[in-house]
Structure formats: C-alpha cells, structure tokens
Amino acid sequence: MKHFTSVHDVADIKDLAQKALDYKSHPLKDSSLGINKRIGLLFLNPSLRTRISTQVAARNLGMDSIVFNIDKEGWNLEMADGAIMNGTTVEHIKDAAPVLGQYFNILCIRTFPALLNKEDDYSEHIINQFIKYCGIPVVSLESATLHPLQSLADIISIREEHKSIAKPKIVLTWAPHIKPIPQCVANSFAQWVNNWGEAEFIITHPEGYELDPAYTNGATITHDQCEALKGADFVYVKNWSSYKDYGKVICTDTSWMLTQKHLDVTNNAKVMHCLPVRRNVELSDEVLDGKHSIVTKQAANRVWAAQAVLSEIIRNN
Ligand code: CP
C-alpha cells in the first residue's frame, strides 16, 4: 500500500480487517515500527474521531504526529493550475505540498467537498494535488467523495458482531438532516461492503437520493425503507445530500428518522452511525441509547483501522 484514499488501495480487505482486529487485541505489538517517523495530519475541516484516533494509532506504532488545522492556522492555499495569485490565496499547493513532504513520512488530509459542483468534487482535485506534489504516502482522513478509514472501522465492527451469521443483511438507510451533507460516508460504505462481498447489501433512500452507481453497483436499492429493514442484521444510518440534484436537500420527511418502531421489523439489528449524529433528527434517543446501538464501538474501532493502515504504509515504503 502506497497511499490510502479508497478501497482500491487495499490488496485484501479481509486481511487488513484481521490486522486491525489483531491490533485491537495487542495495541502495542508493533510499538517500535514507527520510531523516528513522523505523521502530519492536515485538516481543512473539523474532526473529533478521525483526528484523535489517527493520533492514537500513530502513537501505538511509535510515531510522532503533528496536527495542522490548515484552514484556520495556515496560508490560504491556491489549488488551480496556472492561477494568477492576485486574490485571496497566498500559497500554491505546488509549493506547500513538497515542503510538507520534507517534514513528514506520511501526510494525512481531511478535505470535504464544497457541494457546489459535482465535477469539481468528484475529481478529488485537492487530495490528488497533495498526492501529486508532496512525494510521500497520503492517507485520506475523508476527502470530497470517500471516507475509507471510517469504512474500514465499519467493516471491522460488523465482523466483530456477526460471528454467527454467515452472510449478514446490511441496510444503509438515508436519514433526514437540517443541512446538505457530503455523500462521502455513504459512497465509501457502499464501496467497501460491495468489495468485501460478505453481506447481503440493501440501500434505501427517498427518490432523488441515488448515489453514484460507481460505488453502489452490487447493492439492492429501494425507496421503501420499511421493506428494506425487514430481517436486517445491521442498519447503518446516514444522511447525504442529493447526488443527482447535486448538494441539495430535496427531502425533509421526518418519517425517515430511525426509531425503535423501524427496528421492530429487523432481526434485532445492530445500529450503526459514523458520528457526529443529530439526535432526534437522524436517529431517535431511544435507538442511540438502546442496547442495539454500536456507534461507540464503531468510533473506538477507528483506532485499529488507522493503525492497520499506517503500519501497512510504513512496511511498504
Ligand atoms: N466519523 C468521523 O469521521 O468523525 P469526525 O468527523 O469527528 O472525525
């Protein structure tokens, strides 16, 4: 593994998930692997779990980490090739990224989509510019379209819970939200579950919320949430804005919020969400605080996912 920006950087999902679970059992088993190595975590957007879990993972491997909230503390970066920089941008990515490549052994970046222009966001221009110019391995901390560290943690969490089920039924359900949210987590979860191939996978959402088929092909897609939830072993709840009517909120139907009543038709489904979550908008309190919620476990598993990825990159570079 050179970079980690999608499932396509992973040779074997099951093997990587097992490595992560091995770290969960023995967090410090490779505590000298990253000695004298340094990881940079660049945030163009806020984070709680991704930032801290990746730092803990680096520490477990003996690495130093430096967090840089570049959106608040750095120069305003220019991303456009050939730009005449007589406006608000101060430093070109072509100049900043190679410098960061000199300071770190691995560069991790969080860069959300603007949700204004589908082509711009789906070109993944910003993370690709970092990859092009920094000269060191790059790890996505959530990019414009994908959130692979989250998805690996999600697969690990499902694996831990479904030991007795040969092929669990996993339902990804859209939930309401008060503002436009990126499609990253949903795209990425679909991409990983489809490539993992160990589940019956259903996606349910209101009309107009179809995700990019590049990620969902292989899943069953329905607008009937109740039908989708029948017999489910796992229910992953997530809002996303429209891909078709790009970045827009086109449904505010509160009946899509996941409540205990929705869960009654499932197979005592475990409930997942990547967090942060809008309580009583996306999911009801009773579900989040109930015994079937595994959201905290999912977030805890972010450490082992990050540790497995960082160790692979250190070993291969
Ligand atoms: N799930 C997730 O990525 O959380 P943060 O945005 O807090 O990092």
What does this structure look like?
This protein is α/β, with parallel strands linked by helices and 317 residues long. It folds into two domains: 7-146 and 302-316, Rossmann fold (3-Layer(aba) Sandwich), CATH 3.40.50; 148-299, Rossmann fold (3-Layer(aba) Sandwich), CATH 3.40.50. Helices cover 38% and strands 14% of the residues. It is globular. 47% of the residues are buried.
Annotation keywords:
317 residues; alpha/beta; Rossmann fold; 2 domains; five-stranded parallel β-sheet; four-stranded parallel β-sheet; binds phosphoric acid mono(formamide)ester
Write the layout of secondary structure elements.
Elements lengths: L12 H13 L12 E6 L5 H12 L3 E5 L1 H4 L3 E2 L12 E2 H11 L2 E5 L7 H5 L2 H10 L3 E3 L7 H14 L7 E6 L9 H13 L3 E5 L8 H4 L3 E3 L2 H5 L4 E5 L21 H4 L6 E3 L12 H4 L6 H22 L1
Parallel strand pairs: 1-2, 1-5, 3-4, 5-6, 7-8, 7-10, 8-9, 10-11
The chain binds phosphoric acid mono(formamide)ester.
Phosphoric acid mono(formamide)ester binds next to helix 2.
